[in-house]
Structures are given as C-alpha cells and as structure tokens.
C-alpha cells in the first residue's frame, strides 16, 4: 500500500483522496510541509491555481514542495498542471517548473465553455478510452522535447508526462474511472 | 446531456472547496480579493450591509461593472440575480458569469416561484435555512447550496443556526429507514428521491457552503468546523478597517480551520471588524433570510 499525499490547501482534494482509497492506498491530506514526510507520491489537485500558489508561499511550503517534486512522482490535474508547468500566463507568483510545458490558463473560456468528452489515453503503448471533464480548463500551448504526449483532445495535448511528472488539463477525479490514478501510483 | 451538464456545474463547485468567495463592488476590490487568495469573487453593486442601510429595491448589478471585474481577475466571477427573476439570470449567462447566486440579498422578483435552474448552462447557488429548502433548490437545479445566514449583519448567529439545522436534519434522515423517509420527505416538502439520497450518503448531493454574517477568521473556522465546505464573505471584508489584511487572514483561517494556532495568528493585528448588528434589533420584515421558501 502506497502513501499518496494530496495537496489540500484548496480545491477538490477530497475527490482525489477518495479515488486513492478506492484503489486500496492511503491518502494523506497535505496542509503543512511536515505532512509530506513519509509520502511516496504527491497529487496537486484542481482548484484555483492563484489561490493555492498564494497559500503555498504564505504558509512557507514552497521549498519543501520543490524538494519533494524533484525526487518523487507527482501528478497535477487542471490547477495542478498549471502549478507544475514551466510557465503560465497571469499568475501572481511563478509555478514550480517541474515539466517543460507552456500553459494558457482558462484557454477554453469561462464556465459556459466547460465540457465533457471522451479521449484516447496512451498508457505506455496500451490504449484506453477515458471520460475527460474540462472545467475552465487550461491548455498546453507548447511543450519541450522531453515531454511525452499521453492524450489529445482534438489538436490539444491534454495529458502529458516528463519522467516522474504527469499532468492533465482535465479532472479524472470527477469521474468513476480510476485508470489514470492507478497508472500514476503503479507505473510512474 | 442534462446529467453531463449537472456534472460540470457541480464540478466547478468542487473546485471552489476549501476557499473563500468574496463580495466585491469594483475591479480594484476584485484585485484585492484575488491577491488575498479568494477562489472567486461575487460582483455586486452594493454589499449587503449597504443594501440594508440604503433600503429601496436591490437588483442585478450593471453589466458594465460586471465586465470590468471579469477583465480584472482570472478567478471565477459570480453575480446575483433576484429570486425568480430568470431574465436577469439570462443576462448574467450572456455575460459569461461563472456562477449565479439566486439571492435573498436582492429584492425578490417572484414571491411564489424560484428560477427553474435546469434551463441554464451556468451553475446556480441558492441559500437555505433548513434541509427542505436546500432540497427544493436542488430539485430546481441548484449546483451548490449555502446557508442564508443574515446577510450584511456581521453577525454569525443565523448562519450557525442554518448550518446546524441542515446538518442535524441530514443526520436525522440517515437514521430513518426507507419507509420513514417518505413521510419525512412529505413533512419537509422535499423530493423523495433526494431525501433517499441524503439518507444513503449522509450528505447533500451538491457542495454545501456557508454565507451570511462571516466577519472574522474565527467565524470562517467555526462554519468550516460545522460542516461548511467553503465560506462566502460579503460585507465582512470591505466594511472592515483593513480589507486586504482581513481578506488574507480569512483565507488562511479557512484552509487551516481545524488548527487554532493558525487561526489565532491570522486573527492578530487585523484592525476593526465590521460593526455588526444584533439580530433581535432587525424588524421581522427586514430579515433578508425570510425571502424565498
């Protein structure tokens, strides 16, 4: 059984924790830097990236998170993708630059432009369809040579990884399908 | 399709959890709120305390002012329409508002009917005082429920009353068997299907937030400990002596609501909170929470 930290400063962290527990692992709500010790992996959830980044700095968690991200598998969904990116627009403080992607926030528009669709995901050569929920979603507008594309929606890359960092612009935690979490915990 | 749409609506409410939603009346205030770490702003022309003081009919805000706020921030922008005023809601949807609050803070447009919220692509939040009221709003399509509290009072007592009432009714339903829930649904005037859901899951089918009277970091902590998943702060921030510091402090206290050390530190050197009103001094016909059913 793995111990998976879920950054729990704000957002839908409980949905991630539920999915982790359904897969038979332990979820740890990370609200302070000491909560990270003993975690094998970390999920940065959906929520408001500006609010979460502000809280990270205000609560003095940036250095600890940076060190953890450098040495452990991390998955970011939506706001989590923004926080792990090399660069994103209109952010009050810099993101963690853990994956070589350039991100445009709210790229599809406002809530009225939110949508659900099916995508084909490449799990290391094994393809699977997944339901993808896009809520005020960001877009990856450029990616570096070391970033591997795992799924697209139309032309847009919506799931990508670079070594031990994986990011999704959609919300697997809002569906019943634990495939991506399972891949993150067992294969990344 | 309807099911997918509802999932998207509740999905946005999920993203706002654990955060603070702040009332703002212009772009500058919206920036202050965003910088303080708000997860969304509620754009309105007058904050509830001023609506209460000014009297007269309170309506949906001017679209121009809402657009200015949308341009100023990247976080979701909410706005209020009058209870039952679906044409105001249509205008807000056209503006691309992220969440509509069908709110008792504005003067009701319809004393019998609330908006049929399933007709909209935009999610709605509605206020409630008890479980029956919450479930009626959810039946109409609300994707988020909040306590009504007593807006603009700076007094937490009514929000506490409403949150405790909803939570204790939820606990009660869970103790009833399926047969008993039918009579319970009839008594509280709610859909049987939703009452069964609450009984089986021990919670509402949509996120449950707190609003109406939050003025201090400890108020936010109290509401979160009573079961709120996010906190709305209306007049509490921009009616205080130092809005910026208070906004930050309430955000920090909401994240660490269960850690009194953090709430204590956040509460230091904040300046004056808004003055607040004793509820018993508000005439019955001026109580905002009695609007809507």
Automatic annotation (TrEMBL), chain A:
Domain of life, source organism: Bacteria
Catalytic reaction(s) noted: L-glutamine + H2O = L-glutamate + NH4(+); aldehydo-D-ribose 5-phosphate + D-glyceraldehyde 3-phosphate + L-glutamine = pyridoxal 5'-phosphate + L-glutamate + phosphate + 3 H2O + H(+)
Organism expressing this protein natively: Caldithrix abyssi
UniProt keyword Protein transport, yes or no: no
Keyword Cytoplasm: no
Subunit structure: In the presence of PdxS, forms a dodecamer of heterodimers. Only shows activity in the heterodimer.
Alphabetical UniProt keywords: Glutamine amidotransferase, Hydrolase, Lyase, Pyridoxal phosphate
Its EC number(s): 4.3.3.6, 3.5.1.2
Protein name, entry field: Pyridoxal 5'-phosphate synthase subunit PdxT
Binding-site list for L-glutamine: 47-49, 105, 135-136
Entries under Gene3D superfamilies matching the protein: 3.40.50.880
Family per record: Belongs to the glutaminase PdxT/SNO family.
Record InterPro entries: Class_I_gatase-like (IPR029062), PdxT/SNO (IPR002161)
PROSITE patterns: GATASE_TYPE_1, PDXT_SNO_2
A Gene Ontology term for the protein's cellular component: cytosol
HAMAP family: PdxT
GO biological process per UniProt: L-glutamine catabolic process; pyridoxal phosphate biosynthetic process; pyridoxine metabolic process
GO molecular function: glutaminase activity; pyridoxal 5'-phosphate synthase (glutamine hydrolysing) activity
Function: Catalyzes the hydrolysis of glutamine to glutamate and ammonia as part of the biosynthesis of pyridoxal 5'-phosphate. The resulting ammonia molecule is channeled to the active site of PdxS.
Active site residues per record: 78 (nucleophile), 171 (charge relay system), 173 (charge relay system)
UniProt pathway annotation: Cofactor biosynthesis; pyridoxal 5'-phosphate biosynthesis
Pfam family, one: SNO
């Amino acid at each position: 059984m793995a111990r998976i930290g879920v950054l729990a400063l704000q957002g839908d962290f409980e949905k991630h924790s539920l999915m982790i527990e359904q897969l038979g692992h332990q979820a740890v709500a990370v609200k302070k830097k000491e909560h990270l010790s003993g975690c094998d992996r970390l999920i940065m959830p959906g929520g408001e990236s500006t609010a979460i980044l502000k809280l990270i700095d205000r609560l003095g968690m940036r250095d600890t998170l940076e060190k953890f991200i450098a040495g452990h598998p991390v998955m970011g969904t939506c706001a989590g993708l923004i926080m792990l990116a090399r660069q994103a627009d209109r952010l009050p403080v810099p993101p963690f630059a853990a994956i070589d992607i350039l991100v445009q926030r709210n790229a599809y528009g406002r809530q009225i432009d939110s949508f659900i669709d099916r995508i084909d995901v490449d799990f290391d050569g094994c393809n699977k369809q997944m339901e993808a929920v896009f809520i005020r979603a960001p877009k990856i507008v450029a990616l570096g040579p070391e970033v591997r594309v795992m799924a697209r929606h139309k032309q847009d890359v919506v799931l990508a990884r670079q070594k031990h960092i994986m990011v999704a612009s959609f919300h697997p935690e809002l569906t019943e399908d634990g495939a991506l979490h399972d891949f993150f915990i067992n294969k990344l | 399709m309807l099911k997918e749409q509802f999932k998207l609506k509740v999905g946005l409410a999920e993203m706002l959890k654990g955060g603070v939603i702040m009332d703002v009346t212009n772009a500058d205030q919206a920036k202050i709120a965003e910088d303080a770490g708000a997860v969304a702003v509620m754009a309105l022309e007058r904050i509830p305390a001023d609506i209460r003081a000014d009297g007269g009919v309170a309506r949906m805000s001017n679209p121009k002012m809402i657009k200015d706020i949308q341009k100023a921030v990247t976080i979701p922008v909410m706005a209020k329409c009058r209870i039952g005023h679906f044409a105001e809601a249509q205008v807000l949807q056209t503006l691309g508002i992220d969440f509509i609050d069908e709110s008792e803070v504005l003067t009701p447009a319809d004393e019998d009917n609330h908006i049929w919220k399933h007709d909209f692509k935009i999610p709605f939040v509605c206020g409630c005082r008890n479980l029956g009221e919450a479930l009626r709003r959810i039946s109409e399509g609300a994707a988020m429920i909040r306590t009504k509290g007593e807006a603009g009072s700076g007094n937490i007592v009514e929000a506490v009353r409403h949150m405790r009432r909803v939570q204790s009714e939820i606990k009660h339903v869970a103790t009833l068997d399926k047969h008993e829930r039918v009579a319970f649904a009839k008594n509280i005037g709610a859909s049987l299907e939703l009452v069964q859901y609450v009984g089986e899951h021990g919670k509402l089918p949509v996120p449950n937030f707190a609003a109406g009277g939050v003025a201090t970091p400890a108020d936010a902590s109290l509401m979160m400990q009573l079961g709120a998943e996010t906190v709305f702060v209306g007049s509490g921030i921009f009616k205080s002596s130092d809005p910026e510091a208070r906004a930050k402090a309430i955000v920090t206290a909401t994240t660490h609501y269960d850690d009194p050390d953090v709430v204590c530190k956040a509460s230091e050197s904040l300046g004056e909170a808004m003055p607040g009103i004793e509820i018993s001094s508000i005439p019955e016909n001026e109580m905002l929470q009695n609007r809507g059913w």
